Amino acid sequence: MAESFQLRVYSYLDRMQPQFAAFVGTITQGDLPTAGMAALYIEVAPGNEVFRLVDIAVKTTEARPGAQIVEREFGMFEIHSHSQAEVLEAGHIVLDRLSLHEEERIKPFIASVQVITNVDPYQAQLLNRFRRGSMIVPGETMLVLECAPAAYINFAANEAEKGATIKLIHISSVGRFGRMWLSGSESEILQARDAAINALESLNGVEGR
Prior knowledge:
It is found in: Bacterial microcompartment. With 209 residues, the protein is an alpha+beta fold.
């Protein structure tokens, strides 16, 4: 690979949770995922590399592409399938073509974690104008988590939903940082926060942002 190439994110989701899958369905322009599917998010630089990598993944396995995004700095794509084996195989083939290993991805960096209790009605209205998931209700507790590279936020959100009873308000997974908003009771949000942080910290990789 060229020296400028970066495998920024290699993130496998073993089982997409119901709210996460539903949210992805509202923003994807590719094949629609459903709850229970396995998924793989890969983010690279330079961004144009995603076209070649998606081509490799879909031609060699039964995995379907849900996203293929190129923005100013990075490119990201997502593939999914009801078969975990197909998604894992697609990932292994992509890594093999790149002559890279999973451990050469960038390790996630948690940039910000905020827990806001008793959300004010006016702030709830502002947040709901920009959300693509559930609506936040005044009085709920809200979790805002930001990480880099951006595509790791999908893994964090999915693991948070596994670990607690929450509402998924919004996810932004493209650009320099990934962000998610969750809401629920204070105890459930604290549990979701811990699940998300533990998930991100469990991933190995090289240091870099």
